[in-house]
């Protein structure tokens, strides 16, 4: 896993994977004791300057020495059921080189099961060298495989979920979304998503967020997650707006520099 100032989450996460043959943590200058906590759980800890999400995760993958890798975020916990399923799978002859797992997200104190937030399958278990991230990928993207993948069962299929302690409060969500939307600016600029025309600006900053909310909250039944679901999907639509607004603002700044203004 990659980490930065994750002292609050790390003990819970590392305690869930003490059965692993090796734990690798790539840190980027934490100041809250993250590295010491990781070493206390027997992890091999590396301190490397942040090189973007894709580059940092790939660096962590390259530091692993075992045949199979379980890629985790610092706020994810492997349930005992999922751990047993992984161990049983690897004790035999896996049919695939990689497997997705179901992820259950805790947001604002509620386990979200609708609105596209569950089963939230992510490629997490794979043979070393089978999957990597693009270097210019957006924050919290999933490694991309170079072949077909299997599925490991969630709680409804006899297996366990990966528990994601995602956003405990609205303040934590807003802080993350400000950070992620800012981190996405280089990728948005590289892809030309700068809303250069008036129509494109309206489409990206108004229509796109509105449709995102409608799709997730209504058609994917996010309303079944109560007030927490409504709060999340409203603010997620706002996050979509932020990405395009920030990209437009950055593009205008680049244009002014090019013109010598």
Blueprint (SSEs and pairs):
Elements: E1 2-3, H1 10-15, E2 24-27, H2 34-40, E3 44-47, H3 53-63, E4 68-70, E5 76-78, H4 80-91, E6 98-101, E7 103-107, E8 110-112, E9 122-127, E10 131-132, E11 144-145, E12 150-151, E13 162-167, H5 170-183, H6 185-190, H7 198-219, H8 226-258
Parallel strand pairs: 1-2, 2-3, 6-12, 7-13
Antiparallel strand pairs: 4-9, 5-13, 6-9, 7-8, 10-11
Helix pairs in contact: 5-8, 7-8
Descriptive overview:
The chain has 261 residues and is an alpha/beta fold. It folds into 2 domains: 2-165, Spore Coat Polysaccharide Biosynthesis Protein SpsA, Chain A (Alpha-Beta Complex), CATH 3.90.550; 169-258, no CATH class. Helices cover 43% and strands 18% of the residues. The chain contains 8 helices and 13 strands. The protein has helices at 10-15, 34-40, 53-63, 80-91, 170-183, 185-190, 198-219, 226-258; strands spanning 2-3, 24-27, 44-47, 68-70, 76-78, 98-101, 103-107, 110-112, 122-127, 131-132, 144-145, 150-151, 162-167. The strands form 4 sheets. A 4-stranded mixed beta sheet has the order 4-9-6-12, with no helix packed on it. Strand 1, helix 1 and strand 2 form a beta-alpha-beta unit. Helix 5 packs parallel to helix 8 and helix 7 (198-219) packs antiparallel against helix 8. The longest helix has 33 residues, at 226-258. The radius of gyration is 20 Å and the shape is globular. The mean pLDDT is 93.
